[in-house]
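Appendix B, record 7
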Amino acid sequence: MNTKQMTGLGAVATLALAALGATGAQANSGDTLAAVKARGELLCGVHPARHGFAAPDSQGNWSGFEVDFCHAIAAAVFGDASKVRFVALSSQQRFPAIQSGEVDVLARNVTATLGRDTALGLNFAPPIFYTGTGFLVRKADGIAKIEDLDGAAICMAPGSTTERNVAQIFAARGMTYTPVVIENNKQLVDAYVTGRCDALTKDKAALPGVAAFDTENPQDHTILPGIYSKEPLAMAVRQGDDQWYDLVKWVTFATFNAEELGVTQANVDEMKASDDPDIQTLLGVIGDNGTKLGVDNAWAYAVIKQVGNYEDIYMRHFGPESPVALDRDLNALWTEGGLLYGFPMQ
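Structure tokens (predicted):
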């Protein structure tokens, strides 16, 4: 799917904005949706380049799992999934950008935590991806388990939950390590691939993409067994605008519910003729859910038709034919042993 070219983040956050982060920006209910409609496009904050989640091609067209959820919100608002401008954000830039209103929604590998939900003035939509801290190592080094990393140099990004998790993981085991902290993702991966550190740590879902950076020898790397933290990745919005929060939340639930009801991107037109009231409500054939959210009643139909249900989105970026193949594990529906549970759209 073609998208608009990314824009840069504007000016670096000022001291005043940093102070704002302590309390969180407030938005009046309805202001965000009205601003998005008036602007004619959604401003979505994403990762600059993470395999499977978000990355631009050489023409500046974005693709990825979180990119598709931005497209889904645009489809709900405008009936046109392409009306998105992607803003590439570093880990240090991401929270000031959403707090200040420079982006309307943050879909940038953000772990929902109590501290972020309160102190940063954010509201988190339902998690769209469950993962946890993992470690990538070179097979030749003979590192088979986390205890083998005692005294190792560990590459990691600053300002992430992973940075804190690693400190806790090693302290709990009485182990030491040398952190190699690098903000730029390409430089971080290069530091690991070239041997500057013994292991690289990220959310486990991101590690296959890191191994793929070693284009000559991707098979020379392995992910250590185990997940060492809870990392529920969710889209974030500013506190205070309940209408916008509700819309982002229910777009997420719509992708879950569509999969559960068997409504896919491929069959959504056919399913509009279903006599199942849950499917009719989802697709806006009956009811006024769109009116309640401030958008067209066919908003979820537009999401599924143009972007897909959750399975469509997941398989596009993490399915067996994708460059970053990942089993769904916890990211399966609750009916299949996973954690995805869409609230009823009544």
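Remarks on this record: Residues 242-261 form the longest helix (20 residues). The chain is about 35% helix and 15% strand.
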